[in-house]
Write a structure and sequence with these properties.
470 residues, alpha/beta, 2 domains, 5-stranded mixed sheet, disordered N terminus, disordered C terminus
């Protein structure tokens, strides 16, 4: 599986046993999405294989959950701990401390259903797959080789057309520091024995030497090759950070997102907030939560846009720009026609916004976040609130891409959203507010974003946009 007989994997994911496994894979650039066994504890290797074989039957049934009467102690994400008496899984990071089980259960269930669906979609679409399992250092009964072989035999029977390998780590305190031993249990199964317990007398016995594990993941290779090749080939993993979507939907805050997408792909999907100015994220969240209030009350013409008083969001009309920039008074009939057209168009786009959120496809929502005086914790809260608002509307699998100016957030800001389908990407600067379709923008930054986040579709251009007017 490893070493001279190299393979490339279409899909790598963690079976557990705890958070250290998925975190190490992420930091080794081998995993960038969340799956059902991530950030959980409890059950053992054999138990988790059985859960996978059962297709997660009773994985998180509310009648199986037992209140452990303790929280996880994580002040950044304080959660009540529940265990599953049926399969032994312990949910440490999912049920908010300040909410009852009945209040939070449906949200947590939906989250795990998304992760389960994502896992099986990846398995179904992949030919060569690598399972990774890292035993916690304090495990009392280590997984026997017999159980490993028998479990993987069952996996092979369930997925006969797949090439599935297993890499399993076992802590061995007798092995010297920074050393490891490889045991090849079969052609498709490799056991790595190493001493990766954080400290011998650590009060938290399951802690691991995280940097050592990541380095180990990056260097399990028998040949002297470049570091770039090691990262790409150490599990012979076909690295691909490209993410593709069936709908790519701009949420504003202004036209720069849609313009940059159009500039890069030469088309753009019409959507509710694509050509508007939401001013700030609070207005957008309110509008998503109250779509019925959008363009249904008082409208004010703020040339060349229309301001919705209910939401404080401004929308472009269809009237040519030269009408608004002319020194001549604008004909009242043109103003009324522009207003009526906007009301009709937004009504249609509201319906489309809901429809494209619930058509069994994969969506990407993009929001350009203009940070002014907010504190980092407020920015984090606003992004989470936006995600939750979308989650109330969308039954589709979706990701939320937030674009922020680089200097406004710390370099590790993405880590705050590691457990959600939220991606933080940066540009050096945003285009000027009064010239978002001009030449003053971060060309390299936007190119990197759209090299990573791509449409799984192509639309034929059928109309001329305002920024194309001469």
């Amino acid at each position: 599986m490893l070493g001279k007989c190299k393979k490339k994997y279409d899909f790598v994911f963690s079976l557990g046993e705890a958070c250290s496994s998925t975190q190490a894979l992420r930091d080794a650039n081998l995993q960038n999405r969340s799956f059902p066994f991530d950030w959980l504890y409890g059950s053992d290797f054999k138990g988790r294989i059985n859960i996978l074989l059962s297709e997660f039957n009773r994985f998180i049934d509310i009648d199986d959950l037992v209140d452990e009467n303790i929280n996880n102690g994580d002040l950044n994400n304080l959660c009540h701990i529940y265990s599953n008496k049926y399969n032994g899984i312990v949910f440490n990071h999912d049920f908010p401390e300040n909410e009852s089980l009945n209040t939070s259960y449906n949200k947590v269930l939906e989250k795990f259903q998304r992760r389960i669906n994502r896992l099986f979609n990846n398995i179904n679409c992949s030919k060569k797959i690598l399972f990774v399992y890292i035993e916690t250092p304090n495990i009392k009964i280590k997984t026997s080789n017999e159980d490993i072989l028998e479990s993987m035999k069952k996996i092979k029977n369930k997925y006969p057309d797949k090439e599935i390998d297993l890499l399993i780590f076992s802590n061995d305190k007798l092995i010297k520091k920074n050393k490891y031993i490889l045991e090849k249990l079969s052609e498709n199964i490799t056991k790595v024995r190493a001493n990766y317990k954080r400290h011998e007398h650590d009060k938290i016995p399951y802690r691991v030497k995280h940097k050592f594990l990541v380095k180990l993941l990056k260097n399990l290779c028998f040949e002297k090759i470049s570091m770039k090749e090691k990262i790409l080939n150490l599990f012979n993993f076909k690295k691909s950070n490209v993410k593709k979507y069936d709908h790519i939907i701009s949420l504003g805050y202004n036209c720069e997102v849609s313009y940059q997408f159009f500039k890069y792909y030469h088309f753009v999907e019409s959507s509710l907030f694509a050509w508007c100015n939401t001013i700030n994220i609070d207005n957008l969240i309110f509008a998503i939560n109250n779509l019925d209030k959008l363009i249904t009350g008082k409208l004010e013409n703020v040339k060349p846009m229309w301001k919705c008083f209910n939401t404080n969001i401004r929308f472009h009309g269809k009237a040519p720009m030269k009408i608004w920039t002319s020194n001549e008074p604008v004909n009242i009939e043109i103003i009324n026609e522009d207003r009526n057209e906007l009301i009709s168009r937004i009504s249609y786009l509201k319906e489309k916004f809901i429809k494209t959120s619930n058509d069994n496809k994969k969506n990407l929502y993009i929001f350009k976040y203009l940070v002014t005086t907010e504190k980092i914790e407020d920015i984090e809260k606003n992004i989470n609130d936006l995600y939750l608002s979308l989650n109330k509307i969308a039954k589709n699998e979706f990701d939320l891409l937030i674009i922020i100016e680089k200097q406004k957030i710390p370099t590790n800001f993405q880590e705050k959203f590691v457990d959600k389908n939220i991606f933080i990407r940066t540009v050096d600067f945003f285009a000027p507010e009064d010239d978002v379709t001009g030449k003053n923008f971060d060309k390299i930054g936007w190119k990197k974003i759209f090299d990573e986040f791509k449409p799984n579709f192509k639309l034929k251009k059928t109309k001329k946009f305002k920024f194309e007017e001469v």
